[in-house]
Amino acid sequence: MTLDALELASSALVGPSHPAGAAAGRGSHTRRPVKTAPSAALEAAVLDGLLRPPCLVSFSGGRDSSLVLAAAARVARRQDLEAPIPVTWRFPDAPASHETAWQEAVVGALSIAEWVRLEATSELDLMGPVAQPVLAAHGVLYPANTYLHVPLLEAARGGTLLTGLGGDQLFEPRPRPGPHRLAQRHFGLHRPGWRRRRVAASLPWLQPGSIRTLARRRAAERRDAPRRFDQWVAWQARRRSLAVGIDSYDLVAAGAGALILHPLVDHRVVRAVAAVGGRDGFSDRSELLAACFGDLLPAGVGERSDKARFDPVVWNVTARSFIETWDGTGVDSDVVDVAALKAVWSKPWPDFRSALLCQTAWLAAASSSRLQPAR
């Protein structure tokens, strides 16, 4: 799916949701009664990958990837299939990304024998040696770090890579109106001017017209969002951001000769979680995971709330060098305030929502240099 100029500038893929089933591409979300438990639905979803070995699991140690690995390990043992192989990135120069203790706890609890650990320093830069072939072949993909999966897919060549994609969207409880939301309604804080100010504050490199357009898109998306939890989960699974991300992963997987599957957005899992949550859903993500997948997750994993950070991994040598010499070309100045973008890129760790712009500008510069005669 092609990104428009504003989506490239903001990494905000909002707007009307796609038709039922478009995001996962594995079936449709309907209102038919669901009797399958979420854990059983997830086991059915990971079986598709186990039946095409080797079956690797993109494993960070977080709740979503741990859940997928646990389901795959259980199904493999039950059906006497080849065991899933967790494959994990390690970044020694990025301490905030370290999840070693959680990873080892999960792998130990699941009695996993084979575990592939890959180490990288500057190789996974936004325009580094892993990203450049992807950018050359496909242009800018969403999300900007899609290329991180290429080495994992190459390790799974001829087989399958399972990911935890979609957990952040599907397993966060439907926001419920609280005192602050009631106050916003009372004082008119959802009026267009307030929405524009919020966009301007969070994405200061956008031009005023872009800010207005994005504010309108977000307002329209909020109006479309269902109030019931079960309907909201199905709506989340159809959103443009998820659909475009899945398409991007499919592109790089095809190039690597592997199949990539995202069990958490499989239609069976989405429908089962929606059925358990019903109208009101859950108070928080930990409650959802316990109610839906408590028999799968190793003890303690479902309650963790910390998240790893990967800024030094993507904003590394090549990106830094490009930013230092960037002359402002290669981006749409009608959409982007170049001076404000330079200010954002001058920070120690630029806002990741500007990463697509950085890749866009780099691609433009690379294309221009190829057309120039050597001097």
Low-confidence stretches: 19-31, 179-189, 371-375
Mean pLDDT over the full residue set: 88
Q: Taking strands numbered 1, 2, ... along the chain, how are they ordered across the largest sheet? A: 3-2-1-4-5
- Please give the share of residues in helix: 40-55%
Distance between the termini: 38 Å
Jot down its keywords.
18 helices, 5% strand, mainly alpha, 375 residues, single chain, 5 strands
Task: Please provide a brief summary of the model.
With 375 residues, this protein is mainly alpha-helical. It has 18 helices and 5 strands. Helix 3 links the parallel strand 1 and strand 2 (85-90).
Description of the structure:
49% of the residues lie in helices and 5% in strands. The protein has 375 residues and is mostly helical. Helix 2 packs antiparallel against helix 13. It contains 18 helices and five strands.
